[in-house]
Amino acid sequence: MQVKNWMIRKVVTISKNGLITDALTLMKKYSIRHLPVVEDKVLIGLITESDLRQVMIPPLMNEMSLDQVMIKNPVTIGPNESLEEAARLIYRYKIGGLPVVDKGKLVGILTTPDILTAFIQLMGVLETSSRLDIQLAARPKAFEEASGIIQQKGGQIISVGMMGKGPKKTYLFRLKRCPLEPIIQALGKKGHQVISSEE
């Protein structure tokens, strides 16, 4: 999944010559927390809600420019990068959004809720579904074998996640709603242990 398929393309922006009160007005009007600062479509900074909170004292608001408040080298991402890379950056830098830049020009913005929406859709969390959490038998191609058993017994796999490491690694299979008991029994016969299930 590429960033360009999930980013917000119509980005609300502000000029570096804008006032702090202008930034506050825009954020309130559009219910946003990240406001890119641009000059001729080139990203030169980023204003966040938390940045503005620190200067919301009347004397400071009148004296300081956006240039003094903005993050001058914000973390960015390209439109063709993966959503996984965007999630890694947001996690690593403890930030809530990423300006999307292509050849120096701002082309979009990607926020934590956008990434969450994408992963929810990918994982099929909101679909009516069943779930199997499985520790696979310790042998080569165990994953392929377990996936095959699930499908042979009528299970349609929506998504697969993974939790933990090493031999205790658990695979989280989300399936279209179906009876699980025949699948659980068939997996057990091949040495795969179902840790938990939900129809």
Could you tell me how far the N terminus lies from the C terminus, measured between alpha carbons in angstroms?
A: 28 Å
Strand content: 25-35%
Helix run count: 8
**CATH architecture level-2 label of the largest domain:** Roll
Tell me the quaternary state.
Answer: single chain
Tally of discrete structural domains: 2
Describe the main β-sheet briefly: 4 strands, antiparallel
Can you identify the CATH class of the largest domain? Alpha Beta
Strand order of the largest sheet: 7-8-6-9
CATH topology heading of the largest domain: CBS-domain
Tell how many strands the DSSP assignment holds.
Answer: 9
Structure description:
- The protein has a four-stranded antiparallel β-sheet with strand order 7-8-6-9, covered by helices on one side. A three-stranded mixed β-sheet has the order 1-2-3.
- 23% of the residues are buried.
- It has two domains: 3-119, Roll (CBS-domain); 127-198, ACT domain (Alpha-Beta Plaits), CATH 3.30.70.
- It has 199 residues and is an alpha+beta fold.
- It has eight helices and nine strands.
- The chain is 35% helix and 28% strand.
